[in-house]
UniProtKB/TrEMBL annotation, chain A:
Official protein name in the record: Ring-1,2-phenylacetyl-CoA epoxidase subunit PaaB
Organism listed in the record: Chitinophaga ginsengisoli
InterPro entries the UniProt entry points to: PaaB, PaaB_sf
Top-level taxon of origin: Bacteria
Length: 122, 334
């Protein structure tokens, strides 16, 4: 009898088991992205991912992994492979966004015009 | 919980160094400029081969440490003193296993599959933190782990969460949040023994004496002995030197131990008032490397238990397998 403090080692005589073991590629299933909703009406936000054989089990694993603390009212899961994204290299396509002031309230200086008008009509 | 502000490397890594030499110098310069500006690197981005290799190694070993680290504590769930301690310990052990999953996912974004990482753990090729190769003999050991090992891990993880690789930083932010509960529940249990009966105090002092050397080993060999960390610091893979992290840990936690009337088994341990740095006797670094090699008191049984779990979990993994779901292999995008 060995004197391990881990009862499994003693009970199952794991110390006698010297065979090697290899996990097969794909044995840990697919990757699902997880989205967490903190309260009703809020957006679901991406929080990480889980490995699961299908979406239903992915939801259960997601609850264990991302919903065991703090507020959570709902979770989404989606297969990572099903997410379509731009290449990060293409981020320059958004480069002139800050220049498009005509799409923004701040791009319209109405007070300047009113003040000018008032000064003129006084 | 996590062990090790150090990254283990095998001595002969010439091949990878060659690869590193072949990195496109223009891309390398752009990459280093991004890091210098404080930008995060994401999975799809170009990165030097050596950066990828070092990160896989770091994150994978971190993941293994979480999983293996749950074993010495897990065996105390059935023996925890009282219902509240038992609930807290179950929650903590579940967190640690969850941290392992988060970290395996982060490492997978760099191109190594979870299966390959688990196989490298089982074969002994891939390491985990040395502290988990020591036995948790009494309940006081569990409180020392929960308080001091977790505290050391937090010093390390908070530093790493400011690193350059996006998925690792995001995983660490969540981990650090949960670790704060681990530390607090460990401290609470630690104080209870320290302020308890003479027998409780004696048990705690004994655990502290046995764990002090592994704790001093925790942050890895002294800076003067560790090579190749300059580039890793520049790339923000390694965020602080081993000695700096050790000093930061001692600065916060030694006073907390001493104020409870406990002692530490190092007569030279003191804070030098002139330099503001802690001085201590060198722990036995030969022993440290001996344990890394696999010759610590619990290395074999830790891997035996992991192997047994993988072997006996296979039937259910297979039973749940949906072949139609497996058609396209997928890696996480973020």
């Amino acid at each position: 009898m060995n004197d391990s403090l881990d009862p499994r080692v003693n009970r199952l005589r794991l110390d006698k088991n010297d065979g090697s073991f290899k996990v097969e590629e794909g044995e840990n299933w697919n990757v699902f992205e997880v989205f967490h909703q903190e309260k009703r009406g809020a957006h679901h936000e991406h929080v990480g991912c889980v490995h699961a054989p299908d979406a239903n089990l992915a939801l259960i694993f997601a609850k264990e992994q991302f919903g065991r603390r703090k507020k959570c009212v709902n979770l989404w899961v989606v297969r990572s492979a099903d997410i379509l994204a731009f290449d990060l290299e293409d981020e320059d396509m958004f480069a002139n966004n800050p220049d498009k002031t005509y799409r923004d309230a701040s791009g319209f200086k109405v007070m300047e015009k009113i003040n000018k008008f008032k000064a003129h009509t006084k | 919980m996590y062990g090790g502000g150090y990254i283990f490397d095998e001595p002969n890594r010439k091949q990878q160094r060659e690869e590193q030499l072949h990195d496109d110098p223009e891309k390398l310069a752009a990459f280093e400029a991004r890091i210098a500006r404080g930008e995060k690197i994401e999975p799809g981005d170009w990165m030097p081969a050596e950066y990828r290799r070092q990160l896989i190694r770091l994150i994978e070993q971190h993941a293994h440490s979480e999983i293996i680290g749950a074993l010495p504590e897990g065996t105390w769930i059935t023996r925890a003193p009282g219902f509240k301690r038992k609930l807290a310990l179950i929650a903590k052990v579940q967190d640690e296993v969850g941290h392992g999953q988060l970290l395996y996912n982060a490492a997978e974004t760099l191109g190594k599959s979870r299966e390959a990482m688990i196989n490298d753990l089982l074969s002994g090729k891939s390491k985990y933190s040395n502290v988990f190769n020591y036995p948790a003999k009494t309940w006081a050991d569990v409180t020392v782990i929960g308080f001091l090992i977790d505290a050391a891990a937090i010093v390390n993880q908070v530093a790493n969460s400011k690193g350059s690789y996006g998925p690792y930083c995001r995983a660490l932010e969540r981990i650090c949040y949960e670790e704060s509960f681990h530390l607090k529940q460990g401290y609470d249990a630690f104080i209870e023994l320290a302020t308890g009966t003479p027998a409780q105090k004696e048990m705690l002092q004994d655990a502290l004496n046995r764990w002090w050397q592994p704790i001093m080993h925790f942050f890895g060999p002294p800076d003067k002995a560790s090579s190749h960390s300059e580039k890793l610091m520049e790339w923000k893979v390694k965020m602080a030197s081993n000695d700096d992290m050790r000093n930061q840990f001692l600065d916060v936690y030694v006073p907390k131990i001493w104020e409870l009337g406990l002692t530490l088994p190092d007569p030279l341990l003191r804070k030098n008032p002139d330099t503001g740095k802690w001085e201590y006797s060198d722990p036995d670094w030969d022993l440290f490397f001996e344990v890394i090699k696999g010759n610590g008191p619990c290395n074999k049984e830790r891997l035996d238990v992991r192997k047994w779990a993988e072997e006996h979990g296979r039937w259910i993994r297979k039973a749940l397998m949906r072949p139609e779901e497996m058609e396209r292999s997928a890696l996480p995008v973020a």
